[in-house]
Design goal:
Blueprint lengths: L10 H20 L5 H22 L5 H37 L6 H42 L9 H24 L2 H21 L4 H32 L8 H29 L4 H25 L17
Helix pairs in contact: 1-2, 1-4, 2-3, 2-6, 3-4, 3-7, 5-6, 5-9, 6-7, 7-8
Length: 322
Amino acid sequence: MSYRLDPATRVSDGLRGVSFAELDLAHTALGSPPERHSGVHSARKCLKRLRSLLLLARPGLPDPVFLNLTDRIAGIARGLAAARDAQALTDAVDKLARETESGPGDGPIQSLRGWLQKRRHAAEQNLEQSAASEAMRALLELRPRFAGLAVYPDDFSPLAEGLKRCYREARQAFRHSVASDSAEDVHQWRKGVQHHWRQMQLLAACWPSELSARVEASRTLSQLLGDDHDIALLTQLVSTPTMTFGKPEEIAAFLKRCRKRHKALRKEARAKAEILFVEKPGPFANRIAAYWLSAAGKAASAAATEQPGNVVAFGDLRTRAS
C-alpha cells in the first residue's frame, strides 16, 4: 500500500492501512545490513511520514493516543539520527564545494570532510552493534498500538481540521522566518513544509493533478530549506571554538561562502513559498475537503451501481405451481 489515502475507504481504515505499510517498510529497510546506511535513511523517512499522518488526524484522536504514538516515533528516530546526520553533513560539504566558487575556503572543506567521515564510521559501528536492532524491536512494538488507530467522527472532518492547522502553522512559520532570518526559524519553517508535502501525498487521490503538483512544489521547497539547515550546521561546527578546521583566514573565507549560499537558498525558497502558501488556511482546507467529499461520493455511487454478472435478482427466482 502506498502512502496515500483512498476516498473510497473509511478514513480510519485508510489511516491504519497506511500506517502498517510504513511500519513494515521501516522494519524491512533496517533489516538489510549490506545497505544499512540507505536503510536508515529510508526508515527515517517512514517515521516522518507517520508523524505527518498523525498530525493530520490529530483533531480526531484522543490526546493520550496522539502523544503516545508521536513520542514513540520520536524515540525511534533519535536512535537512528547520528548515523544519518553524519552522512547528511558529509553530503552537504560536497554540495557546498560544487555549488560555490573554489578558493581560500577549500581548506576547511577538506578538514570537515575527513572529520565527518570519522564521525559517520563511529555512528555506523553503533548502528550495527545496537541502534538498528533496538529500532526494529520498537517498530514491532508500535504495530499493535496503530491497530487501534481510529478518528472520531470517522469521516473527513477531523482531517480537514488537521490540514488547516498544519497549513496555518507552516504559513506562519514562513512569515516568521522571513522577519527574523534566523537559522532556527528557517528550520521550524522547514518542518511545516515537510508535513504539508507529506499530507498532500496522503490526500492526492481526491484530485491527483492539482495535489500532485503541490507535492512536487513542497518537496522542492523542503529540499532548499534542508540545504539551508545543513549549511547552518556546518557553520556552527566550523565556528565552535574547540574545533580547528583551518587557519583563521581560511575559516573566514569558508563562512563567507556559507553566507552567500544561505542568501541564495533563502531567496529562492521564499519566492516558491509565496506561491505555495498564498491561500489562507480556512479556504484552503475547505477546498481540499470539497475535493475529498466529491471523490468519496463518486466512489460510493459507482460502488452502489455495480452489479456482478453472476448475481440473479431475488425477484426473478420464481417457482411455478405444478
